Amino acid sequence: MMLKSDIQRHDDGSVHATLEGKIDQYFDGRDILQAADSAKRVVLKLDGVRSISSLGVRALEAFMKALGDREVFLDDISAALANQVAMIPNLVGRATVRSVKLPFVCPGCGHEGAFSVPYQPDAAATHAPKCPQCGGKMDFDGFSEEYLPH
Amino acid sequence: MVSRHPATIRRLAQSLGAVGLGVNHSLGTAGLQRYEPGELKIAVLDLDVDAHADPAQLVAELAAACPQTPLVAVAGVDAKRRLMAALGSPSVRHVVPKLGGWIDLPAEKRTFDGPDEQDLAIGLRRHLHPQTSPQGVGPYLIEGFSAQHATVGSTSEKDGALGEVMSMAEALELSDEKKRRIEVATEELLLNAIYDAPRAPDGKPLHAGLDRRTPVTLDERARVALAYGCDGRNFVIAVADGFGSIERDDVVRSLRKLLEPQGPRPQAGTSGAGLGLMLTYSQANQLIVHSVRERFTEVTAVVHVSGSNRTALARGSALHLYLDGPAEKE
Protein backbone atom coordinates (compact mmCIF):
# COMPACT_ATOMS: atom_id res chain seq x y z
CA MET A 1 0.00 0.00 0.00
CA MET A 2 1.32 3.42 -0.96
CA LEU A 3 1.75 5.94 1.82
CA LYS A 4 -1.42 7.92 2.51
CA SER A 5 -1.50 11.14 4.42
CA ASP A 6 -4.33 12.99 6.11
CA ILE A 7 -3.48 16.61 6.83
CA GLN A 8 -5.36 19.04 9.05
CA ARG A 9 -4.62 22.64 9.93
CA HIS A 10 -5.64 23.55 13.48
CA ASP A 11 -6.88 26.91 14.75
CA ASP A 12 -3.57 27.61 16.50
CA GLY A 13 -1.82 27.47 13.11
CA SER A 14 -0.22 24.10 13.67
CA VAL A 15 -0.41 21.35 11.08
CA HIS A 16 -1.33 17.80 12.08
CA ALA A 17 -0.69 14.97 9.66
CA THR A 18 -1.35 11.26 9.88
CA LEU A 19 0.71 8.91 7.72
CA GLU A 20 -0.36 5.41 6.83
CA GLY A 21 1.43 2.77 4.77
CA LYS A 22 5.04 2.21 3.82
CA ILE A 23 7.78 4.83 3.57
CA ASP A 24 9.89 4.10 0.51
CA GLN A 25 11.70 5.93 -2.29
CA TYR A 26 8.50 7.59 -3.48
CA PHE A 27 7.89 9.44 -0.21
CA ASP A 28 8.73 13.12 -0.24
CA GLY A 29 6.13 14.57 2.15
CA ARG A 30 5.54 17.43 -0.29
CA ASP A 31 1.87 17.73 0.65
CA ILE A 32 2.77 18.12 4.33
CA LEU A 33 5.52 20.63 3.58
CA GLN A 34 3.11 22.69 1.49
CA ALA A 35 0.45 22.62 4.20
CA ALA A 36 3.05 23.57 6.81
CA ASP A 37 4.41 26.44 4.74
CA SER A 38 3.65 29.08 7.38
CA ALA A 39 3.17 26.77 10.34
CA LYS A 40 5.53 26.95 13.29
CA ARG A 41 4.48 23.61 14.69
CA VAL A 42 3.96 20.28 12.94
CA VAL A 43 2.57 17.17 14.64
CA LEU A 44 2.90 13.86 12.83
CA LYS A 45 0.97 10.79 13.91
CA LEU A 46 2.86 7.79 12.63
CA ASP A 47 1.35 4.61 14.04
CA GLY A 48 0.13 3.72 10.56
CA VAL A 49 3.66 3.47 9.13
CA ARG A 50 3.94 -0.28 8.82
CA SER A 51 7.36 -0.45 7.12
CA ILE A 52 10.28 1.67 5.96
CA SER A 53 12.76 0.62 3.29
CA SER A 54 16.42 1.64 3.01
CA LEU A 55 15.43 4.22 0.40
CA GLY A 56 12.60 5.31 2.67
CA VAL A 57 15.18 5.99 5.38
CA ARG A 58 16.86 8.51 3.12
CA ALA A 59 13.54 9.99 2.00
CA LEU A 60 12.34 10.40 5.57
CA GLU A 61 15.61 11.97 6.66
CA ALA A 62 15.36 14.49 3.80
CA PHE A 63 11.74 15.26 4.73
CA MET A 64 12.59 15.85 8.37
CA LYS A 65 15.42 18.14 7.29
CA ALA A 66 13.05 20.04 4.99
CA LEU A 67 10.81 20.80 7.98
CA GLY A 68 13.62 23.11 9.05
CA ASP A 69 13.27 25.11 12.25
CA ARG A 70 9.63 24.28 12.86
CA GLU A 71 8.71 22.65 16.14
CA VAL A 72 8.04 19.04 15.14
CA PHE A 73 6.42 16.40 17.34
CA LEU A 74 6.08 12.75 16.43
CA ASP A 75 3.23 10.91 18.13
CA ASP A 76 2.63 7.19 18.34
CA ILE A 77 5.46 6.25 16.02
CA SER A 78 4.97 2.67 14.88
CA ALA A 79 7.22 -0.21 15.94
CA ALA A 80 8.56 -0.21 12.38
CA LEU A 81 9.68 3.38 12.69
CA ALA A 82 10.84 3.01 16.29
CA ASN A 83 13.07 0.12 15.25
CA GLN A 84 14.69 2.29 12.57
CA VAL A 85 15.10 5.25 14.93
CA ALA A 86 16.76 3.01 17.52
CA MET A 87 19.24 1.96 14.81
CA ILE A 88 19.58 5.40 13.18
CA PRO A 89 19.03 8.06 15.88
CA ASN A 90 19.57 10.92 13.39
CA LEU A 91 16.70 9.73 11.26
CA VAL A 92 14.14 12.11 12.76
CA GLY A 93 16.48 15.08 12.96
CA ARG A 94 15.46 17.65 15.58
CA ALA A 95 11.93 16.33 15.99
CA THR A 96 10.70 15.29 19.43
CA VAL A 97 9.28 11.78 19.61
CA ARG A 98 6.57 11.88 22.25
CA SER A 99 5.14 8.38 22.12
CA VAL A 100 5.55 5.03 20.43
CA LYS A 101 3.10 2.23 19.70
CA LEU A 102 4.70 -1.08 20.60
CA PRO A 103 3.62 -4.74 20.50
CA PHE A 104 2.48 -6.23 23.80
CA VAL A 105 1.23 -9.69 24.66
CA CYS A 106 -0.83 -10.76 27.64
CA PRO A 107 0.83 -13.60 29.59
CA GLY A 108 -2.57 -14.54 31.03
CA CYS A 109 -4.85 -14.86 28.02
CA GLY A 110 -2.43 -14.52 25.10
CA HIS A 111 -4.09 -11.40 23.67
CA GLU A 112 -1.74 -9.41 21.44
CA GLY A 113 -1.91 -5.80 20.37
CA ALA A 114 -0.04 -2.54 19.80
CA PHE A 115 -0.25 0.03 22.60
CA SER A 116 1.04 3.55 22.99
CA VAL A 117 3.70 4.28 25.62
CA PRO A 118 5.89 7.34 26.22
CA TYR A 119 9.08 7.40 24.18
CA GLN A 120 11.52 6.91 27.03
CA PRO A 121 14.02 4.17 27.89
CA ASP A 122 12.06 1.99 30.31
CA ALA A 123 8.55 2.83 29.13
CA ALA A 124 7.75 -0.70 27.96
CA ALA A 125 8.06 -1.87 31.58
CA THR A 126 6.95 1.21 33.50
CA HIS A 127 3.95 1.94 31.24
CA ALA A 128 2.98 -1.61 30.30
CA PRO A 129 -0.74 -1.58 29.38
CA LYS A 130 -3.52 -3.60 30.94
CA CYS A 131 -4.94 -6.34 28.78
CA PRO A 132 -8.25 -5.16 27.26
CA GLN A 133 -9.58 -8.73 27.47
CA CYS A 134 -8.63 -9.99 30.94
CA GLY A 135 -7.23 -6.90 32.69
CA GLY A 136 -3.83 -8.45 33.41
CA LYS A 137 -0.57 -6.55 32.97
CA MET A 138 0.80 -7.12 29.47
CA ASP A 139 4.40 -7.98 28.55
CA PHE A 140 6.38 -6.11 25.94
CA ASP A 141 6.89 -8.41 22.95
CA GLY A 142 10.35 -7.10 22.16
CA PHE A 143 13.46 -5.58 23.69
CA SER A 144 13.68 -1.92 24.66
CA GLU A 145 17.05 -1.60 22.94
CA GLU A 146 15.38 -2.37 19.63
CA TYR A 147 12.57 0.19 19.90
CA LEU A 148 13.27 2.81 22.55
CA PRO A 149 16.01 5.35 23.27
CA HIS A 150 18.87 3.97 25.33
CA MET B 1 36.50 -26.10 19.09
CA VAL B 2 37.59 -23.44 21.51
CA SER B 3 35.12 -22.80 24.33
CA ARG B 4 34.98 -22.98 28.11
CA HIS B 5 31.22 -22.79 28.63
CA PRO B 6 29.50 -26.19 29.00
CA ALA B 7 26.18 -25.18 27.41
CA THR B 8 28.00 -23.73 24.43
CA ILE B 9 30.26 -26.76 24.13
CA ARG B 10 27.25 -29.06 24.14
CA ARG B 11 25.39 -27.18 21.42
CA LEU B 12 28.49 -26.77 19.26
CA ALA B 13 29.38 -30.45 19.63
CA GLN B 14 25.85 -31.45 18.64
CA SER B 15 26.08 -29.27 15.51
CA LEU B 16 29.47 -30.68 14.56
CA GLY B 17 28.36 -34.22 15.31
CA ALA B 18 25.25 -33.79 13.18
CA VAL B 19 27.46 -33.22 10.14
CA GLY B 20 29.80 -36.08 11.00
CA LEU B 21 32.67 -34.12 12.47
CA GLY B 22 34.60 -35.17 15.54
CA VAL B 23 35.72 -32.50 17.96
CA ASN B 24 39.17 -31.57 19.18
CA HIS B 25 38.44 -29.31 22.14
CA SER B 26 40.46 -26.58 23.78
CA LEU B 27 39.51 -24.27 26.66
CA GLY B 28 41.28 -21.21 25.28
CA THR B 29 43.34 -19.83 22.43
CA ALA B 30 46.59 -19.69 24.39
CA GLY B 31 48.97 -22.58 23.76
CA LEU B 32 46.83 -24.18 21.07
CA GLN B 33 48.11 -27.26 19.31
CA ARG B 34 49.36 -26.46 15.78
CA TYR B 35 47.69 -27.99 12.76
CA GLU B 36 48.75 -28.26 9.14
CA PRO B 37 46.62 -26.60 6.48
CA GLY B 38 43.79 -28.94 5.56
CA GLU B 39 44.16 -31.04 8.70
CA LEU B 40 40.97 -29.56 10.18
CA LYS B 41 37.70 -29.16 8.31
CA ILE B 42 36.69 -26.13 10.33
CA ALA B 43 37.57 -24.34 13.56
CA VAL B 44 34.93 -22.97 15.93
CA LEU B 45 35.81 -20.14 18.29
CA ASP B 46 33.64 -19.10 21.23
CA LEU B 47 34.60 -15.45 21.71
CA ASP B 48 33.29 -15.66 25.28
CA VAL B 49 36.40 -17.63 26.30
CA ASP B 50 37.64 -14.15 27.18
CA ALA B 51 34.87 -11.56 27.05
CA HIS B 52 37.38 -8.76 27.63
CA ALA B 53 39.80 -9.76 24.88
CA ASP B 54 39.87 -8.15 21.45
CA PRO B 55 37.89 -10.55 19.21
CA ALA B 56 40.33 -9.92 16.36
CA GLN B 57 43.17 -11.06 18.61
CA LEU B 58 41.36 -14.26 19.58
CA VAL B 59 40.63 -14.97 15.92
CA ALA B 60 44.25 -14.27 15.00
CA GLU B 61 45.51 -16.69 17.67
CA LEU B 62 43.22 -19.47 16.42
CA ALA B 63 44.00 -18.72 12.76
CA ALA B 64 47.71 -18.95 13.53
CA ALA B 65 47.22 -22.40 15.09
CA CYS B 66 45.23 -23.74 12.15
CA PRO B 67 46.26 -21.82 9.03
CA GLN B 68 43.97 -21.77 6.00
CA THR B 69 41.17 -23.29 8.04
CA PRO B 70 37.73 -21.65 7.78
CA LEU B 71 36.49 -20.30 11.11
CA VAL B 72 33.14 -20.05 12.84
CA ALA B 73 32.91 -17.33 15.50
CA VAL B 74 30.19 -17.53 18.15
CA ALA B 75 29.51 -15.03 20.93
CA GLY B 76 27.02 -14.25 23.66
CA VAL B 77 28.60 -11.27 25.42
CA ASP B 78 28.22 -8.05 23.45
CA ALA B 79 27.63 -10.40 20.54
CA LYS B 80 26.71 -7.91 17.84
CA ARG B 81 29.84 -5.81 18.22
CA ARG B 82 32.24 -8.69 18.86
CA LEU B 83 31.00 -10.83 15.97
CA MET B 84 31.30 -7.89 13.59
CA ALA B 85 34.85 -7.37 14.83
CA ALA B 86 35.64 -11.04 14.18
CA LEU B 87 34.47 -10.65 10.59
CA GLY B 88 37.54 -8.50 9.95
CA SER B 89 39.51 -11.70 9.42
CA PRO B 90 38.86 -13.27 5.99
CA SER B 91 39.18 -16.68 7.65
CA VAL B 92 35.88 -16.11 9.44
CA ARG B 93 33.09 -17.48 7.24
CA HIS B 94 30.33 -17.80 9.81
CA VAL B 95 29.37 -15.56 12.72
CA VAL B 96 26.69 -16.97 14.99
CA PRO B 97 25.21 -15.38 18.11
CA LYS B 98 24.35 -17.53 21.09
CA LEU B 99 20.67 -17.82 21.90
CA GLY B 100 19.63 -14.83 23.96
CA GLY B 101 22.97 -13.11 23.48
CA TRP B 102 22.12 -10.58 20.79
CA ILE B 103 20.70 -7.96 23.11
CA ASP B 104 23.52 -6.74 25.31
CA LEU B 105 22.05 -7.61 28.68
CA PRO B 106 23.62 -6.51 31.96
CA ALA B 107 26.12 -8.99 33.38
CA GLU B 108 23.66 -10.46 35.92
CA LYS B 109 21.20 -11.38 33.17
CA ARG B 110 23.71 -12.91 30.76
CA THR B 111 23.69 -16.58 29.98
CA PHE B 112 26.30 -18.60 28.17
CA ASP B 113 23.98 -20.81 26.21
CA GLY B 114 25.16 -21.80 22.75
CA PRO B 115 23.88 -21.08 19.28
CA ASP B 116 20.89 -22.95 17.84
CA GLU B 117 22.48 -26.31 17.01
CA GLN B 118 20.02 -27.09 14.23
CA ASP B 119 20.67 -23.84 12.38
CA LEU B 120 24.43 -24.13 12.85
CA ALA B 121 24.41 -27.70 11.56
CA ILE B 122 22.73 -26.53 8.36
CA GLY B 123 25.38 -23.85 7.95
CA LEU B 124 28.16 -26.38 8.52
CA ARG B 125 26.61 -28.89 6.11
CA ARG B 126 26.60 -26.32 3.35
CA HIS B 127 30.21 -25.51 4.18
CA LEU B 128 31.28 -29.15 3.97
CA HIS B 129 29.34 -29.79 0.76
CA PRO B 130 29.83 -26.68 -1.36
CA GLN B 131 27.36 -26.21 -4.19
CA THR B 132 27.92 -24.37 -7.44
CA SER B 133 24.32 -23.40 -8.05
CA PRO B 134 21.73 -21.44 -6.05
CA GLN B 135 20.10 -23.59 -3.39
CA GLY B 136 16.85 -21.68 -2.89
CA VAL B 137 15.09 -21.93 0.44
CA GLY B 138 15.24 -25.73 0.73
CA PRO B 139 18.16 -25.99 3.16
CA TYR B 140 16.34 -23.82 5.71
CA LEU B 141 12.94 -25.51 5.63
CA ILE B 142 11.94 -28.94 6.89
CA GLU B 143 13.32 -31.40 4.35
CA GLY B 144 11.00 -31.77 1.39
CA PHE B 145 8.84 -28.81 2.34
CA SER B 146 7.41 -26.98 -0.66
CA ALA B 147 8.55 -23.55 -1.77
CA GLN B 148 7.19 -20.86 -4.04
CA HIS B 149 9.19 -19.51 -6.96
CA ALA B 150 8.99 -16.38 -9.07
CA THR B 151 11.15 -14.72 -11.69
CA VAL B 152 11.49 -10.97 -11.53
CA GLY B 153 12.31 -9.13 -14.76
CA SER B 154 11.38 -5.56 -13.93
CA THR B 155 10.68 -3.21 -11.05
CA SER B 156 6.92 -3.64 -11.53
CA GLU B 157 7.34 -7.42 -11.33
CA LYS B 158 9.32 -6.82 -8.14
CA ASP B 159 6.30 -5.12 -6.62
CA GLY B 160 4.09 -8.03 -7.68
CA ALA B 161 6.47 -10.64 -6.27
CA LEU B 162 6.76 -8.73 -3.00
CA GLY B 163 2.98 -8.67 -2.83
CA GLU B 164 2.85 -12.45 -3.24
CA VAL B 165 5.37 -12.97 -0.45
CA MET B 166 3.38 -10.69 1.84
CA SER B 167 0.15 -12.47 0.92
CA MET B 168 1.68 -15.66 2.25
CA ALA B 169 2.81 -13.91 5.44
CA GLU B 170 -0.66 -12.41 5.81
CA ALA B 171 -2.37 -15.78 5.27
CA LEU B 172 -0.15 -17.28 7.97
CA GLU B 173 -1.45 -14.57 10.34
CA LEU B 174 2.03 -13.59 11.40
CA SER B 175 2.35 -10.64 13.77
CA ASP B 176 2.91 -7.16 12.34
CA GLU B 177 6.56 -7.13 13.38
CA LYS B 178 7.27 -10.50 11.75
CA LYS B 179 5.53 -9.36 8.57
CA ARG B 180 7.52 -6.17 8.58
CA ARG B 181 10.82 -8.02 8.87
CA ILE B 182 9.85 -10.32 6.02
CA GLU B 183 8.84 -7.36 3.86
CA VAL B 184 12.04 -5.42 4.53
CA ALA B 185 14.25 -8.45 3.82
CA THR B 186 12.42 -9.38 0.62
CA GLU B 187 12.34 -5.88 -0.81
CA GLU B 188 15.95 -5.06 0.01
CA LEU B 189 17.23 -8.32 -1.48
CA LEU B 190 15.20 -7.76 -4.65
CA LEU B 191 16.34 -4.14 -4.95
CA ASN B 192 19.98 -5.19 -4.59
CA ALA B 193 19.56 -7.89 -7.24
CA ILE B 194 17.83 -5.50 -9.67
CA TYR B 195 19.93 -2.37 -9.21
CA ASP B 196 23.30 -3.41 -7.77
CA ALA B 197 24.09 -6.86 -9.18
CA PRO B 198 23.79 -6.44 -12.98
CA ARG B 199 27.13 -5.95 -14.71
CA ALA B 200 28.12 -4.97 -18.23
CA PRO B 201 30.50 -7.35 -20.06
CA ASP B 202 33.43 -5.23 -18.86
CA GLY B 203 32.32 -5.80 -15.26
CA LYS B 204 31.03 -2.29 -14.65
CA PRO B 205 27.73 -1.93 -12.72
CA LEU B 206 24.81 -1.34 -15.10
CA HIS B 207 22.21 0.20 -12.81
CA ALA B 208 23.99 1.14 -9.62
CA GLY B 209 23.90 4.88 -10.40
CA LEU B 210 20.23 4.93 -11.35
CA ASP B 211 17.66 6.84 -9.38
CA ARG B 212 15.79 4.10 -7.54
CA ARG B 213 12.51 5.63 -8.66
CA THR B 214 13.45 4.85 -12.27
CA PRO B 215 11.64 1.74 -13.52
CA VAL B 216 14.05 -0.90 -14.80
CA THR B 217 13.46 -3.79 -17.18
CA LEU B 218 16.06 -6.53 -16.95
CA ASP B 219 17.38 -8.50 -19.91
CA GLU B 220 17.24 -12.28 -19.88
CA ARG B 221 20.55 -12.80 -18.08
CA ALA B 222 19.75 -10.23 -15.42
CA ARG B 223 16.39 -11.68 -14.42
CA VAL B 224 16.17 -12.37 -10.71
CA ALA B 225 15.07 -15.68 -9.17
CA LEU B 226 12.99 -15.41 -6.02
CA ALA B 227 12.15 -18.39 -3.83
CA TYR B 228 10.25 -18.26 -0.56
CA GLY B 229 8.50 -20.56 1.84
CA CYS B 230 7.50 -21.07 5.46
CA ASP B 231 7.48 -24.33 7.39
CA GLY B 232 6.06 -22.82 10.56
CA ARG B 233 9.47 -22.39 12.16
CA ASN B 234 11.22 -20.25 9.56
CA PHE B 235 10.04 -17.91 6.83
CA VAL B 236 12.79 -18.05 4.22
CA ILE B 237 13.40 -15.76 1.27
CA ALA B 238 16.15 -16.43 -1.29
CA VAL B 239 17.03 -14.05 -4.10
CA ALA B 240 19.52 -15.00 -6.81
CA ASP B 241 21.04 -13.00 -9.64
CA GLY B 242 23.18 -14.30 -12.50
CA PHE B 243 26.27 -12.16 -11.99
CA GLY B 244 28.19 -13.28 -8.92
CA SER B 245 29.55 -9.79 -8.41
CA ILE B 246 29.31 -9.49 -4.63
CA GLU B 247 32.54 -9.05 -2.65
CA ARG B 248 33.23 -10.13 0.91
CA ASP B 249 34.52 -6.67 1.78
CA ASP B 250 31.27 -5.11 0.58
CA VAL B 251 29.24 -7.45 2.76
CA VAL B 252 31.37 -6.79 5.83
CA ARG B 253 31.44 -3.02 5.26
CA SER B 254 27.67 -2.96 4.93
CA LEU B 255 26.98 -4.99 8.06
CA ARG B 256 29.43 -2.99 10.13
CA LYS B 257 27.28 0.09 9.57
CA LEU B 258 25.15 -1.36 12.35
CA LEU B 259 27.85 -0.33 14.79
CA GLU B 260 28.35 3.27 13.70
CA PRO B 261 27.95 5.45 16.82
CA GLN B 262 25.17 7.73 15.52
CA GLY B 263 23.75 4.98 13.36
CA PRO B 264 24.35 4.25 9.70
CA ARG B 265 24.10 7.16 7.31
CA PRO B 266 22.20 6.71 4.07
CA GLN B 267 24.26 7.65 1.04
CA ALA B 268 23.37 11.00 -0.50
CA GLY B 269 21.90 11.17 -3.99
CA THR B 270 19.27 9.12 -5.72
CA SER B 271 20.99 5.75 -6.16
CA GLY B 272 20.90 3.10 -3.46
CA ALA B 273 21.03 4.27 0.10
CA GLY B 274 23.73 1.67 0.82
CA LEU B 275 21.74 0.29 3.72
CA GLY B 276 19.93 -2.61 2.08
CA LEU B 277 22.09 -5.52 3.15
CA MET B 278 22.54 -4.10 6.64
CA LEU B 279 18.80 -3.67 7.06
CA THR B 280 18.20 -7.21 5.82
CA TYR B 281 20.75 -8.57 8.24
CA SER B 282 19.26 -6.60 11.12
CA GLN B 283 15.77 -7.97 10.39
CA ALA B 284 16.69 -11.59 9.67
CA ASN B 285 17.82 -14.30 12.08
CA GLN B 286 20.17 -15.71 9.48
CA LEU B 287 21.67 -14.09 6.39
CA ILE B 288 23.37 -16.41 3.94
CA VAL B 289 25.48 -15.09 1.07
CA HIS B 290 26.40 -17.70 -1.55
CA SER B 291 28.25 -16.57 -4.62
CA VAL B 292 30.28 -18.02 -7.45
CA ARG B 293 32.08 -15.27 -9.29
CA GLU B 294 30.53 -14.27 -12.60
CA ARG B 295 27.91 -17.01 -12.25
CA PHE B 296 25.49 -16.12 -9.49
CA THR B 297 24.95 -14.56 -6.11
CA GLU B 298 22.21 -15.90 -3.91
CA VAL B 299 21.34 -14.08 -0.71
CA THR B 300 18.98 -15.83 1.67
CA ALA B 301 17.21 -14.35 4.67
CA VAL B 302 15.78 -16.62 7.35
CA VAL B 303 13.21 -15.05 9.67
CA HIS B 304 12.27 -17.09 12.71
CA VAL B 305 8.47 -17.01 13.02
CA SER B 306 7.80 -19.65 15.65
CA GLY B 307 7.10 -18.07 19.03
CA SER B 308 6.92 -14.42 19.98
CA ASN B 309 8.55 -11.42 18.38
CA ARG B 310 10.76 -11.20 21.48
CA THR B 311 11.90 -14.80 21.03
CA ALA B 312 12.89 -14.09 17.44
CA LEU B 313 14.75 -10.91 18.36
CA ALA B 314 16.67 -12.70 21.11
CA ARG B 315 18.03 -15.19 18.57
CA GLY B 316 19.98 -12.40 16.90
CA SER B 317 21.38 -12.50 13.40
CA ALA B 318 23.83 -15.10 12.14
CA LEU B 319 25.84 -14.64 8.95
CA HIS B 320 27.07 -17.46 6.72
CA LEU B 321 29.38 -16.71 3.81
CA TYR B 322 29.94 -19.13 0.94
CA LEU B 323 31.99 -17.07 -1.45
CA ASP B 324 34.00 -18.60 -4.24
CA GLY B 325 36.32 -16.10 -5.77
CA PRO B 326 39.32 -13.86 -5.26
CA ALA B 327 37.59 -12.01 -2.44
CA GLU B 328 37.72 -15.10 -0.23
CA LYS B 329 41.26 -16.21 -1.04
CA GLU B 330 43.49 -15.92 1.99
Mean pLDDT metric of chain B: 92
Q: State the major sheet of chain B.
A: 9 strands, mixed
Number of helices of chain A: 5
Coarse shape of chain B: globular
Mean pLDDT of chain A: 94
Strand order of the largest sheet of chain A: 1-2-3-4-5
The counted number of beta strands of chain B is 9
Which two chains touch over the largest interface? A-B, 30 and 33 residues
CATH 2nd-level architecture of the largest domain in chain A: 2-Layer Sandwich
**Assembly form of the protein:** heterodimer
Separation of termini of chain B?
21 Å
Number of strands of chain A: 8
Q: Give the CATH superfamily of the largest domain in chain B.
A: Histidine kinase-like ATPase, C-terminal domain
| Strand arrangement, major sheet of chain B | 1-2-3-9-7-8-6-5-4
Rounded to an integer in angstroms, the radius of gyration calculated over CA atoms of chain A is 16 Å
Q: How many distinct helices of chain B? A: 9
Strand content of chain B: 15-25%
Q: How many strands, what sense, and barrel or not for the largest sheet of chain A?
A: 5 strands, mixed
Overall CATH class of the largest domain in chain B: Alpha Beta
List the helices and strands of chain B in order: HEHEHEHEHHEEHHEEHE
Describe this structure in words.
The complex is a heterodimer of chains A (150) and B (330). In chain A, helix 1 links the parallel strand 2 and strand 3. Chain A has 150 residues and is of the alpha/beta class. Chain A is globular. Chain A folds into 2 domains: 94 residues, 2-Layer Sandwich (Transcription Regulator spoIIAA); 40 residues. The termini of chain A are far apart. Chain A is built from 5 helices and 8 strands, in the order E-E-H-E-H-E-H-E-E-E-H-E-H. The longest helix of chain A has 13 residues. Chain B has 2 domains: 123 residues, Rossmann fold (3-Layer(aba) Sandwich), CATH 3.40.50; 191 residues, Histidine kinase-like ATPase, C-terminal domain (Heat Shock Protein 90, 2-Layer Sandwich). Chain B contains 9 helices and 9 strands. A 9-stranded mixed β-sheet of chain B has the order 1-2-3-9-7-8-6-5-4, with helices on both faces. In chain B, helix 2 links the parallel strand 1 and strand 2. In chain B, helix 1 packs across helix 4, helix 2 crosses helix 3 and helix 6 packs antiparallel against helix 8. The radius of gyration of chain B is 19 Å and the shape is globular. The two termini of chain B are 21 Å apart. The C terminus of chain B is likely disordered. At the A-B interface, strand 3, helix 2, helix 3 and strand 8 of A face helix 6, helix 8 and helix 9 of B.
